[in-house]
Amino acid sequence: MRDKLINLFKDTQTAITFKNIKRSLSINKKHLDAEVRAVLKDLELEGILFEDDNGVFKSVPSNFFVTELKSTRKGLRFIEIDDNRFYIDEANLNGALVFDKVLVSIDKNKTSVVKVIERAFSNVVCEVALIDGVKILKPLNSNKKMKVVTGSMTMKKLNPGDVALFSASSNKFDGRYELSLVKKIGKITDDNIMNRAVACSNGFDPVFEDKSYEELENIDGHISEEEISKREDYRKLVTFTIDEQECLDMDDAISIKKNRRGYTLYVHIAHVSHYVKLGSKLFEEALSRCTSLYYDNQVMPMLPDKLSKDLCSLNENEDKLARSVVMRFDLDGNLINYKIVKSVIRSDKKMNYDDVNKSLNSTDVVYPEYLNELKLLREIDKKIINKNSFKLFSAQDMSSEYKCSSHNLIRDFMIMANHLVAISMTDKPCIYRNQPYPSNSKIKDTLLNLDKYANSANNLSNINSSHLYESLIRNASSKDQMIFISNMLFSTLRLAYYSESNEGHFSLGFDDGYVHFTSPIRRISDLVISNILDMYDEGELNDKDLEGLTKFIREVSVRASRMERMAERCQCELENLNFLKMISDQVGAVMEGYIEEIHEGYIVVRCKYVSGIINFEDLSNNNFKMLPSGRIKNKENGRIYKVGHKLEVKIKDVSLSDGVVYFSEITNLTLDEAESNKNKEEVSNDEAKLKRAI
Asked: What is the rounded radius of gyration, in angstroms, for the C-alpha atoms of the chain?
C-alpha cells in the first residue's frame, strides 16, 4: 500500500480526496479506513504528501519541509533546515506549539507553518471570556494568536473569568484547534494567576496534586540504625555544602583529605531515589516537570518542599542519606581509583560562593575553621585542570594563570563525579548527556572570521576533536583576544541533549560518556540514574526488565531534553512578566527608542529599559503597508520606515495577559531630522540663488 501511495503522489500537481485514494487503491471496505489513514500519516511525517484544511491530500512542493518547531529562550519560534535557521512570525505559526512536528513553507520573504502534523507539547492556558453574551476561550501569553475551540459540555463547566489548562490536538474544527480540558487553575482576578498561567503553559505547574502529598505523608524520614549499617558512614568527615546564599535545596556536599600519598575527594549526592521510586506518584510529578525552575530569586521545585528542602536537602548538622563518589588522586593530581557507594553523611557547614571566594582570595576569611579544607580543594582542582582531565571552552578556564572561583571548584568536581558515574554505567541502561560536534561549515566560517587562523580553515583534519578549540584559545596573544576567540567558538557549539546512547560530549572532551547525576533534587535525569543504581544494588535485572527500562529511558530522555528548553523559555517569560508588573504604572510615559524589527502589522521598538511593539494602527498617520524590502510605507505621505529609525513613543498599555508592552508612536525622529535638514538646505539654496540674482 505504501509504494502504491508514493507512486500515486509522484506528480507534484496531484490533489486527491481520501475517497478517491481508496478508489485508486481498489479499497472499498470501511474497516480498512484506519489502516489507509495510518499509512497516509506516516507519509505525511516523511514529507511526501500532506492533507490540507479541506481534507484534500496533496504532494509536498519543493519549498515545503517537515521539521520540528523550536524556540529561543526569549520565545522566538524558528525551524532549522541544513544548519540554517528560519524564524517564523507569531502571525504565521498557524497554531503550532514548540516541539510540534510541522509542515512549513519557506519563501523568499516569509516562513510559515502550513500544518501541524503531530503535537509534541500540547499545553495551552486559556481565560474564559464573555463576548456579546457568548463564552469563548482566549489563549494567554505566548499562544495568544492561536484559534481554539472546545466542546459545549466543557464550556458548561467553565465560567467567565476562569483560567484553565487545556491540551491541544492537531485536529481542527471549523478552522480552530480542538482543546480538551485538563484542569482549572484559578480566576483571572487571582493574585499571581499570570505567573501560574505562564508556568502551566510551559509544563511547570507550581501546585502539586493531592495524591503526591498523600504519598509524601507516608514517607518515613527517620534514618534507622539498620539503614546506616548498609552504608559507608562518613558522618565524622569534615563535610560542607557550597551554594548560592539563598539556596534551600542542597543536593551536593564535599569532603577532602590529604596524606603523604595524595588526596581523597568525596562528592556526596543526596540519595533522593531512596524516597522517590520509579512509578510512584511523586516520580510522575517530577517527570511532568523534569527540572526545578529558578527565576528572580524564586523557585518552582521539581519535588515538593518536604523532599527538596527537608528530607533530601543536605542541611547543616543533620544526618542525611547520600551516594558518594570517592576519588583518590596522587600528589600530582592523577586519578588513581574511585568508588561509588551508598553513604550517610552530616554536613558541618552551609557555605555560599561569595564567602568561599573571600576566604580563598582575600584576607577577609569567613570560614577560618574550614580554611585548610578549602585550600586543599583549590590545590587539587588546579592540579586536575593542569592535567587536562576535561576541557571547557572559556577564557577563564583556558588561561595559563589559574584563578580560583568557588563556582569553578564545585563545577569541576561535579563534572568529574558525573563522568565517573557514566563510566561505571557503561554496561547498564543509562541517560547520557551528549553534545554533538559542531558542523564543519560553522567551524570553517568561524576560522575564516579569525583572520590569524584563516589558513586553518583549509586544514580541518582535527575538526572532530576539542583540542582544536583548546589550542585556538590557549594560543591567543592576549586576554582580550582569548575572550573574543572563546565567544566566537562558543557560538558554533550545538545544544546538549539527553539520550539512552552515548554520543560523547564535545565541550567537555568526554567520548567515553557523560551523565547528569549530581542534582537529583532538581533534575529528572539525575533521579532516574540514582534509581537505576538502586536497582543494580538490589540485584541484576532480567532481560524483560532491561527491555522495559531501556524503552522508558528513551522516553524520559526526549522529554527531559525538551523540558530543559521549556524551562529556559519559561524562566524568560516569568522574568518578563515580573518586569511588566513593575512598570505597569508607567502607562503614558514618553521615551525614545529604535525600530528593531518590522513585521506584518506591527513593529518592535527597543528603548533603553524596555522594548515593546507598535501596531500599524498606532503609528502616526496610521495608513501603512508592508513593502517587499521589509520596510513599511505610509500610503498618504510616502514616508518609509526601516529598521534603525529612531522614534519618540508613548507607553499605551502594559498587557500581562499578552506579556507585551504596547507603544504608540509620537513621531519618527530620524525622518523629522532628515526632512528638517533638507528644508534648511533648500532655504539655503534659495537664498544663494536670490543673492546671485541681485
From this structure: 30
